[in-house]
Fold this sequence. Notes:
Oligomer: single chain
Structural class: mainly alpha
Transmembrane segments: 6-28, 40-65, 71-91, 112-139, 151-175, 187-205
Number of domains: 1
Main location: membrane
Protein name: Lysine transporter LysE
Keywords: Cell membrane, Membrane, Transmembrane, Transmembrane helix
Number of helices: 9
Mean pLDDT: 82
Low-confidence stretches: 101-105
Organism: Paenibacillus montaniterrae
Amino acid sequence: MTATILLKGVIIGFAIAAPVGPVGVICIRRSLAQGGLYGFVSGLGAATADAIYGCIAAFGFAWLTNLLIGYQMWLQLCGGMLLLWMGWRTWRSRPADLYSNAEAEAPRKKMLAAYASVLAITLTNPMTILAFAGIIAGAGIAVEQQLAGPALLLVGGVFSGSLLWWLFLSSAASLFRKKLKPGGLLWINRLSGVIIVGYGLWALFTA
């Protein structure tokens, strides 16, 4: 039973993380520009947010879910503006700057910033809670009857499954890093910036 709950959590976390959205674009671009570890730490921020929302769904905190859904518009507006800012910075990034600063700054302040930025973006989408609640119910897990132990196992599985996806994505993207020339990376920055800005505009217009 314990292994089954953990496995279901892993599958749920992987399924929630796998669809490519703005976070996926950010993770791929950072893996190409600063290396796989930088992209993985970005994904760690998303996995942390998934675990937080998975915890809310698994423990059945209906009042907190309703509170977040009630502030959905404001959260989505904040997320949209954050995406616009990140997209603009990505567009303006120069390959020379990225390569020269990667080794010195990525393990310190920039690594923490990479984690925090993706954590914030993912947390500004409270509808993720409803997705978790629906998938958990569909998986045959009775949230109302969950004890602390099984619920924590489920959340741990969600975190592990999400983290597994980001490890795969960042590792796969980093394989192409050494083959990229500055000109190619410049175009990736431009394209990534446009895509991220597009997601930001969509978030603002649909809030």
